[in-house]
Design brief:
- The protein contains 1 helix and 20 strands.
- The protein has one helix spanning 132-136; strands at 6-9, 15-20, 23-25, 31-34, 42-47, 51-53, 61-62, 75-76, 106-107, 113-114, 151-153, 160-161, 171-182, 188-189, 208-210, 220-231, 235-236, 254-255, 272-273, 288-293.
- It is 2% helix and 27% strand.
- By secondary structure, it is mainly beta.
- The model is unreliable at 124-130 (pLDDT under 50).
- Strands 2, 3, 5, 6, 13, 16 and 20 form a 7-stranded parallel sheet that branches. A 5-stranded parallel sheet has the order 1-4-7-14-17, with no helix packed on it.
């Protein structure tokens, strides 16, 4: 590949493979991915020759948000003054390790609720599918999706929306048979997406409260090369940040969705608040990355 910009729709595939004779991403070029599988996508890049990654685009290889889907925020459009629960985030199940999605904000009756529980980290492998690349890399995982936030209104013609949970980060494996030259800070990403903020209605001063969605769990990156030129670049596998309660007139409590889990760290629980524009969505757990010399797989 030359120094061009590629935007690849993986079409919902669980595993998407690219093969290059050499890979050169320079200038402001980037390689981005979209439309992951509901439980996350593993992108496998095999380079027969050298990889030269010096582009100033951040990230230049972007698998952020390519993990498991976040849960939708709750929607409420009635006058019953009930808290409607958010939806749970999906679990990451693309490889032999399944990560946990964050729980949506809970409804415990009129009008109380609780923040959603964050997705737990993985203590033991749960085998959900076997692909050739995962035999080599059994520890690779996609991040779990964040849970959706709650919603409540007591105004009959009003509609309010809890924040959506963020997608988890994807999984990326690169095998480079030649030299590795990577110099860009935040040049590669498999980070989780942030949760979105709750959205208030616009009708009068009736009681309304909406919670933020949980952030998606960070994904994983495994990169193996034969010889080294430079490895001063950095890889981002951070979990996504949780969203805020709605910014507008409301009374009562808002409840946030839990953050998605990763293979390494649990997501944070969602919180609650009676205030506007306050962070209550749980953050997603951070993922894992490895960049190392290994001649066996190259």
């Amino acid at each position: 590949a030359d120094a061009e910009t590629y935007a690849i729709d993986v079409g919902g595939a669980k595993v998407y493979e690219l093969n290059f004779k050499s890979l050169s991403i320079t200038g402001t070029a980037s390689l981005t991915f979209s439309n992951p599988h509901a439980n996350g996508t593993l992108v496998f890049i095999k380079v027969q020759g050298d990889a030269n990654l010096t582009s100033t685009a951040t990230p230049m290889i972007d698998c952020s948000g390519m993990g498991a889907a976040g849960g939708d925020g709750a929607v409420d459009s009635n006058s019953a003054n009930e808290t409607v629960a958010g939806n749970d985030g999906s679990s990451g199940e693309v490889t032999p390790i399944a990560t946990n999605g964050g729980q949506g904000a809970q409804s415990n009756g009129d009008p109380t609720g609780t923040g959603g529980t964050g997705g737990a980290k993985i203590d033991t492998a749960v085998f959900v599918g076997v692909y050739p690349v995962t035999v080599k890399y059994p520890g690779i995982f996609t991040g779990g999706g964040g849970g959706g936030g709650s919603a409540r209104t007591s105004y009959a013609s009003d509609t309010v929306y809890g924040g959506d949970g963020g997608n988890g980060g994807g999984a990326l494996v690169m095998e480079v048979a030649g030299s590795w030259n990577f110099t860009t800070s935040n040049g590669i990403s498999a980070a989780g997406d942030p949760g979105t903020n709750g959205i208030q209605g616009n009708s009068g001063a009736a009681a309304r409260a909406t919670g933020g969605g949980g952030g998606g769990g960070g994904g994983s990156v495994f990169i193996l090369y034969r010889t080294l030129i430079a490895n001063s670049g950095t890889v981002n596998v951070d979990g996504g940040t949780g969203g805020n309660s709605g910014d507008g007139t409301h009374s009562g409590s808002s409840y946030g969705g839990g953050g998605g889990g990763s293979g390494e760290n649990a997501g944070n629980n969602g919180g609650s608040t009676t205030n506007q524009d306050t962070k209550i969505g749980g953050d997603g757990g951070d993922g894992y990355s490895l960049v190392a010399q290994n001649t066996y797989y190259a």
